[in-house]
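FAQ: What does the model actually see?

It sees only this:
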Amino acid sequence: MTLIDPMIVHEGGIKLVREGCLSIPDFTGNVKRYEAVTVASRDINGRMHAWICDGLEAIAVQHEIDHLDGRVFLDRISNLKRDLIPRKV
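And it is asked to produce this:
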């Protein structure tokens, strides 16, 4: 699936999920994610498409869109939990 300039245009239900990321190895945290999302994006020919995602697919697409927007899952966990993560120099 190729998503160019994806955006979430509709969402439904919120759940707390345990999430991690290869960009930040060895750390996980509880993140609020939508249970279902509709994502609009362009394909390689510039045509608009929409996908309805739920379950793990919805969580994964939100995670990846966060990366495109310059966020990692740590940006979505509480400040208290984030402060417990050791800083690497």
